Amino acid sequence: MEVKDVEMRDRTLTPARLFRGLLCLLVLLLTAFMMLVFYGFISAIFVRVFSIHYSRKATSFFFGSWLAVWPFLFEKINKTKVIFSGEMVPARERVLIIANHRTEVDWMYLWDLAIRKGQLGYIKYILKSSLMKLPVFGWGFHILEFISVERKWEVDESTMRQMLSTFKDDHDPLWLALFPEGTDFTEQKRIRSQKYAAENGLPILKNLLLPKTKGFHTCVQDLRQCLDAENEVANWLMDTFSNKDQLLDKFHSQGHFPHEGTEGDLSTMKCLVSITTLMVLTSLSTYLTFFSSIWFKIYVLFACSYLAFATRFNIRPMPIFRRKKIVLKLD
């Protein structure tokens, strides 16, 4: 097989790139605050009191519009080329996504795939609990029902099982993203992982860390009956990571993955619709906050206080009226 050289782009941090990056971060932060306080609070708190299903639909609509800002800024403004390879991901199925963790922000790249599949507002992550303490964004992680873990199984097991039990309704779309390595990849962590693998007779991986199997097993066990892509998650996790390690070896030597181009370019029209919706909603929220009745200022203060409290103690209201399943036995 012919091996081709991979031309690396200039990655120098120029003032223009720094300005674009800071501008993108500012846009995300300001719009996140207004979306959380006005629309996230209403959809995830008030609507949830009556229906978890419709609460999730409303939250998906509002935050799908907000999360669409990232792929738009990433691909359209910063001109970053995203290449998808491998098998096609089903658009409307409930799936468990297993990914390696190369950088601290690679979980955001899954939004580029989710927006193409219409699942942007339904993607949920299992992430370290320290991220829940981030100003504003931590509130968003809570409203979007991300599962926070301490990376200590004796502490995390009950939290994971409780959250997973709320995801079993087949009527609620679900993309649950799990990073079995448990942390982002660094050279020091790779060395420790390889040492552990050698001492315990496990595969020695060069491009990945050994996956932690307990969280993966719990996700499969608890959601087995309500996931559509069961064949994908039933593969043995260690073998999957061994195969991924070999795939990354070939990528480093050849410069590409097999079967690239399985997803098309991001739809500019879809982005513009989401961005326009976001601009209208945040403009209305800003006007009500600063130029309208004092009651809106009181509302913002109350919403911020509640979101901080609910995120800190992982509180989510339950519906007043719960659906009951009626089973008829016919002789």
UniProtKB/TrEMBL annotation:
Catalytic activity, reaction form: a 1-acyl-sn-glycero-3-phosphate + an acyl-CoA = a 1,2-diacyl-sn-glycero-3-phosphate + CoA
EC id: 2.3.1.51
Pathway given in the UniProt record: Lipid metabolism; Phospholipid metabolism; CDP-diacylglycerol biosynthesis; CDP-diacylglycerol from sn-glycerol 3-phosphate: step 2/3
Alphabetical list of InterPro entries matching this protein: Acyltransf_C, Plipid/glycerol_acylTrfase
Superkingdom classification of source: Eukaryota
Pfam families cross-referenced by the UniProt entry: Acyltransf_C (PF16076), Acyltransferase (PF01553)
UniProt cross-references to CDD domains, sorted A to Z: LPLAT_LCLAT1-like (cd07990)
Annotated TM spans: 21-46, 58-74, 271-290, 296-315
Keyword Transferase: yes
GO molecular-function terms, A-Z: 1-acylglycerol-3-phosphate O-acyltransferase activity
GO biological process: CDP-diacylglycerol biosynthetic process
Keywords carried by this UniProt record: Acyltransferase, Membrane, Transferase, Transmembrane, Transmembrane helix
All copies of domain Phospholipid/glycerol acyltransferase, residue ranges: 95-217
GO cellular component: endomembrane system
Homology family: Belongs to the 1-acyl-sn-glycerol-3-phosphate acyltransferase family.
Protein name: 1-acylglycerol-3-phosphate O-acyltransferase
Gene, per the UniProt record: LOC111437804
